[in-house]
Amino acid sequence: MFLGALFRLLLLSTPIICAAPSGPWDQFNLAPGSRIVHPKAIHNLSGTVENAINLLANGSATLSGNGSYVTLDFGQEVGGFISLNFDEVTPRSSIALSFTESPLFISPLTSDDSAVQDANMSYDGVLPITAPIETTFYTMPSYRLRGGFRYLTLVSTSESYVTISNVSCAISFMPHVEDLRNYTGYFYVSDTESEYADFLTRLWYSGAYTVQTVTIAADTGRKDPPAPSPGWYNNATAATASPVVVDGAKRGRAVWSADMHVAVATEFVSTNDIIPSRNALSTLFSELNQETGQMPYSGPPLSEQGSDTYQAWTLIGTYDYVLYSGDLTWLESTWSNYTKALQFLANKVDSTGLLYVTGTGDWGRLYQGGYNSEANAIYYKALTNSADLANWLNYTTLAAEYATNALALKTRFNDAFWSDSKGMYRDNLTSTLYPQDANSLAVIFNLTTSMEQASSISEGLTRHWNEYGSVAPELPDTIAPFIGGFELAAHFVSGNDARAMELLRLEWGYMLNTSISVQSTLLEGYTSNGSLYFRSTDGYDYDASFTSHSHGWSSGPTASLTFYVLGLTVTSPQGETWSVAPHTSGLSSVQGGFETPLGWFGVEWSSDDDTFNMTISTPEGTNGVVFLPTDGAVLIDGSEYGDNSTLLLDGGNHTILVQSR
What we know:
single chain; alpha+beta; Jelly Rolls; Glycosyltransferase; Maltose phosphorylase, domain 3; 3 domains; 9-stranded mixed beta sheet; 13 helices; globular; disordered N terminus; signal; hydrolase activity
């Protein structure tokens, strides 16, 4: 099995050298210091449970009587294999284990739902340990791995007593990494006066940890169709190679292409562990139909077909992976399939100059199909990315063709979808709906034609805000952090940093602090009133316990905080060229950085009424452009540079001082 092989490899491997410096930001790192974690609190108990508190120190507790139980709290999202000792039992002793991410679904009778999406509140049941039990060390079977949970309930299922001790969880995610805390990137708001300081740093690490929890061994995907029922098996093959990044820790546990656009950026800025994304992409390309160019929009065992938007997201994910890794060898080996997949979409562009959507599967939104603005925005990004990829492989003629097609689509997009009266893009040619997804993507993918147009969209998006975040009009009554992450970036790109900060506080602040979630990793989505009663695209509400509380597609703020607030991005493979463009966002000091195969990229800046100070560290042999957030006299490395707000710098260590006049 992949998992066993990876653990064996892990024992023989040497630790990865961590490029990120140590500092006060380390206290926000949620990754466990050991792969064996223990409960941190007793959440509740019922019936006859003696010495329950001992379970927090590997000691013994005794449950007596059918239905007596104790719920243990691991303090944050974890996932893996539960082990414990049976110290004293009778021939008739038996117990069961139940799991949940949210405390709303703690129960001695059932676990939250990781397997079945329906309207019947179908929960997962329990993992029974039946009589006769030996007095020995017990570990749950590998196929019953529980991918994501915070609360574990131990319940007696007989009238006989049972004494247990040494309850622990062996972490199963990121099985190829020895030290889960060994990040290669970091982010820290050192502005102690700002209301956002600790929150932003905490959020950055929460997103990073979320993506760690959804990085799994390829043979620990969710069984589909679910088996047993009620119950769960996590022994399905999810990819052609291991490890692989999937959608959710508890639920899904399959490759979904749109999720990867967010997750690969999070991986890059935090751990630089992006091989799981390459494996996910390779898995999707391996199932491409050679005759039509269509590929599934989810990985095995689901391998669902019929999404034009997700087909384009796979192409965008390819660009992301190559940009961050510089892996042109893999790109060349994939290029034939890549171009077939792009041509599949190009064939749907008709005489209108727009993509006509026939594969309507999407992230959950309603109203997909036909001349849809969201789909055309994503296809536009796939075209511009394809031009870059072709240039990187020296296919210059093909690159020019892709760029020409993209330019034509941009013109047609604005003619077809822009509404002067609303100052936003409509959902389709005749719609009165102005969606969150298309408008956000249009800004960040540069489909807008002016900053005024982008700023109008930024303002329009706030019309759907409430106290819990931004409600998606294309999926009514739903707050979708996947799309919210794009809206967040759109506010930064349009120069509306205050709106970006407020959206962070509303939406991700709620996710991190609400008592109905795990307060460590990030929710897949929730309703507009902050509840977990989530709407399905089939027109009915489904089991609220089905909602994932650790979903990589919600981690957009982690990369946005690095790319926009810190201001550091790479602009060509592995950072041969780079950009620094801080959005001070009302903060006085921020620092952070990341690693690529070329080495360390770091930025630290501080700002007050009179000066802006910044230090930049990038690998020798690279070069970049610096966009200063303030005007004034500029000194670079102590020498006067003039009043330029845009600077061209070679790699190395530089100090920049801007003094207001």
